[in-house]
């Protein structure tokens, strides 16, 4: 028997408990939203701040319980993981921006990773935890060209090694996502995505693997549905493999009917290194090594796990639709305020 929120349920009838770390992150939100759609799980969404607007948004979803937890505080993780059947683990290198450093701090992510893996081990030894999914980051196709790797990549691969060191591979699936589509929504003036600009950090002719952040949730749902097959496996996951020019052409095909011309605009590397040094190192690394997702192999696994990847085209259509609505709403609010001003005169 287990007790949840005062309700005592029998083990056989209850939904499996999935603990999701960093639930309010872009990735965490994608995972929680996808899992709650299945109606198969009780999802423990872990956040440092249970009162934030994002935590409250998650709380309004079916089958979701918000739980306080900090990856820097092992005791809080111990409580948050207690009795979980599966854990989705993610870590962040983002500590807060500083001049000449940016916001990425490798040691910050390592500390979270070691705490996370230690508590996964602790929960596994209690006998209930059956499956751990660690979200890492994609590796290179050609590991020999892999050096120097960005700090926030090395930290994740070191955490992968720690999983192995603690002999947890047998219960672990490592998902390694490539760059999110959502990065194209950066706020750098002059480099924000629009009907005329497709911004990127990579030279226009390099192949660049990318994924919609919500698709990471689909992958988690997929591997959770076939744990025995996907434990002890690492999968580099991507939705698209296009050059900057090809991405801009995808945008062009959507906006051409409105008479727009879309161009690929590369953010100068020197500006990236100034704003966020490690992302500049990452851009060098992607051009030199490339991510390691095997797009053909992925197709077969996606079919098996019932994953329909979001295409860049569909993602762009939704984003442009939203931009249109916001602009219309701004313009109607502006017109209404003008009308009010005239009326007030
Ligand atoms: N951007 C990409 O293209 C990309 C691609 C592949 C992998 N990744 C990796 O994916 C990971 C997540 O990135 P994201 O962009 O999805 O995250 P995000 O949206 O920037 O969110 C970061 C989250 O981390 C949580 N957090 C911060 N410090 C924490 C701590 N000490 N303990 C627990 N939670 C903490 C915060 O939640 P609360 O304040 O609510 O606790 C926040 O929701 C990163 O490691 C990133 O490197 C990113």
Give your account of this protein's structure.
By secondary structure, the chain is an alpha/beta fold. It has one domain: 3-Layer(aba) Sandwich (Rossmann fold), CATH 3.40.50.720. 45% of the residues lie in helices and 20% in strands. It is built from twelve helices and 16 strands. It has helices at residues 26-38, 53-59, 74-81, 106-125, 151-165, 213-225, 227-230, 244-255, 269-275, 277-288, 295-304, 312-344; strands spanning 2-4, 7-9, 16-20, 41-47, 64-68, 86-89, 94-98, 102-104, 131-135, 172-177, 179-180, 197-200, 207-211, 233-237, 240-243, 263-266. Strands 5-4-3-6-9-10-14 form a seven-stranded parallel β-sheet. The chain has a three-stranded mixed β-sheet with strand order 11-13-15. The chain has a two-stranded antiparallel ribbon with strand order 1-2. α3 packs across α4, α8 crosses α12 (312-344) and α9 crosses α10 (277-288). The N and C termini lie far apart (70 Å). Residues 1-9 and 337-345 have low confidence and may be disordered. NADP nicotinamide-adenine-dinucleotide phosphate (NAP) binds at residues 22, 24-27, 47-49, 52, 70-72, 90-94, 112, 137, 152, 177, 179-180, 183.
């Amino acid at each position: 028997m287990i007790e949840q929120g005062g309700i005592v349920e029998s083990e056989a009838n209850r939904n499996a408990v999935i603990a999701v770390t960093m639930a309010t992150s872009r990735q965490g939100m994608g995972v929680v939203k996808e899992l709650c759609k299945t109606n198969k799980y009780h999802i423990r969404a872990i956040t440092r701040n249970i009162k934030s607007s994002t935590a409250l948004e998650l709380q309004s979803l079916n089958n979701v319980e918000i739980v306080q937890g900090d990856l820097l505080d092992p005791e809080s993780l111990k409580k948050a993981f207690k009795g979980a059947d599966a854990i989705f683990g993610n870590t962040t290198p983002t500590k807060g921006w500083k001049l000449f450093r940016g916001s990425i701090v490798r040691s910050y992510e390592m500390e979270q990773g070691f705490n996370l893996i230690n508590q996964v081990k602790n929960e596994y030894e209690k006998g209930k935890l059956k499956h751990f999914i660690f979200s890492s980051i994609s590796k290179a196709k050609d590991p020999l060209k892999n050096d120097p790797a960005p700090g926030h990549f090395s930290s994740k691969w070191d955490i992968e090694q720690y999983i192995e060191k603690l002999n947890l591979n047998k219960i672990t699936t490592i998902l390694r996502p490539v760059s999110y589509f959502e990065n194209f929504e950066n706020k750098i003036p002059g480099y924000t995505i629009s009907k005329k600009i497709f911004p990127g950090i990579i030279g226009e002719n390099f192949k660049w693997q990318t994924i919609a952040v919500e698709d990471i949730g689909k992958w988690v749902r997929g591997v959770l549905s076939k744990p025995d097959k996907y434990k002890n496996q690492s999968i580099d996951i991507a939705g698209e493999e296009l050059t900057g020019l090809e991405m801009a052409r995808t945008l062009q095909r959507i906006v051409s009917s409105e008479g727009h011309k879309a161009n690929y605009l590369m953010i100068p590397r020197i500006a990236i290194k100034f704003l966020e040094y490690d992302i500049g190192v990452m851009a060098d690394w992607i051009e030199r090594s490339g991510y390691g997702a095997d797009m053909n192999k992925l197709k077969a696994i996606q079919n098996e796990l019932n994953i329909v990847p979001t295409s860049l085209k569909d993602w762009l259509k939704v984003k442009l639709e939203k931009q249109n609505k916001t602009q219309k709403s701004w313009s109607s609010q502006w017109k209404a305020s003008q009308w009010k001003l005239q009326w007030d005169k």
